[in-house]
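Record 1 of the preview.
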Amino acid sequence: MATATTGLLTAEDLLGLSGQGVKGELIRGVLCETVSVGKVHAHIAIRIGGEFDRHVRPRRLGRVGGTDGGVLIERNPDTVREPDIYYVSAERLPLDDQSDGYLEVAPEIVVEIVSPSDRNQEVNDKTLMWLAHGVLMVLEVYPAERAVMVHRPGAAAVTLAGDDVLDGGDVLPGFSLPLRDIFDV
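->
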């Protein structure tokens, strides 16, 4: 798998490992295994991803994906990250694209659901990495606080809570989701 000279894995190596039951991300060629994070995380991912999909698919705006898809954002050494949810437009990934493997374009929106075990610095680093690689909106979802932080390139983060409504702005026009629909059972 890893090249003899560098010891670093490639995106293709990571795909091969997934067939052996290894789950994780690749950060500059280094495997960072991931684990399941629980039912609250899963329920929120389905709620947000489902709402994205209900907005995107009928309008043929693009595609919505989740963790297992992986996004290849750097080569040599390779970095493959697994956002909890992503939206990529038909402009960046044509609807007729049926190629397999990782998404090789930056999605417009990435959703990261923050788990209790996530360190603040890791969450911040991941958000900055997404923005640096062309993502137009990063949503950090904080289940315990029932809040969402919205990050956009070159703008201050905005925190939504309570009766606020998450909207797609100019990135996903017409999309809106009340926070209560994300966090209430």
